[in-house]
Write a structure and sequence with these properties.
Layout: E1 14-15, E2 30-43, H1 47-50, H2 53-66, E3 71-78, E4 84-90, E5 93-100, E6 105-113, H3 119-129, E7 134-145, H4 146-149, E8 154-155
Antiparallel strand pairs: 1-8, 2-6, 2-7, 3-4, 4-5, 5-6
Helix pairs in contact: 2-3
């Protein structure tokens, strides 16, 4: 069975892409934007909000909706004595957050694929909701190399565990 996956994930476990090997002479020039990736550092945040798992779940959900993304699943974990990690699985990729309430700090990662989403809006929601007094936002485009985007690929055979 042949499939052409020209969107979202350049190589999700598919074999038969010899042109991308280390000895390849093909230059992986980017042709299409797959999505945008934002890395957000939040400083001097509200300590109580950084340690409130329910608040963070609601805020991540709001952030995903604000970005125009499709929330598929949300998992969070509160650590003892403090701190929360959250991961939102989006139809378009993900949002993650890791908090250090004792330092008023949160590390956020927002990656959305497609041209209909706006990850910066998710970052704004999180920044405002957590009351960050300072922040640093880095964003960059994720681009698909032409050799991957246009390649015919066969599913890779994975051996069953004995």
């Amino acid at each position: 069975m042949k499939q052409n996956l020209s969107c979202l994930h350049p190589n999700p476990g598919w074999g038969g892409i010899e042109s991308l090997s280390a000895t390849s002479s093909v230059s992986p020039s980017a042709t299409d934007m797959v999505g945008k990736h934002c890395i957000l550092e939040l400083y001097d945040c509200d300590h109580a909000k950084l340690d409130d798992e329910a608040f963070l779940r609601d805020t991540i959900t709001t952030a995903a909706k604000s970005a125009g993304a499709t929330l598929l699943n949300l998992i969070t974990h509160r650590f003892e004595p403090q701190g929360v990690t959250g991961l939102a699985l989006l139809g378009e990729s993900h949002i993650s957050i890791h908090t250090w309430p004792e330092n008023g700090y949160a590390a956020v990662d927002v990656f959305t694929c497609g041209d209909h989403t706006m990850p910066e809006r998710a970052c704004d929601v999180l920044r405002c909701a957590l009351g960050a007094q300072r922040h640093q936002l880095k964003s960059f485009l994720r681009e698909t190399p032409a050799a991957v985007a246009n390649a015919q690929r066969d599913p890779q055979i994975v051996a069953a565990a004995a």
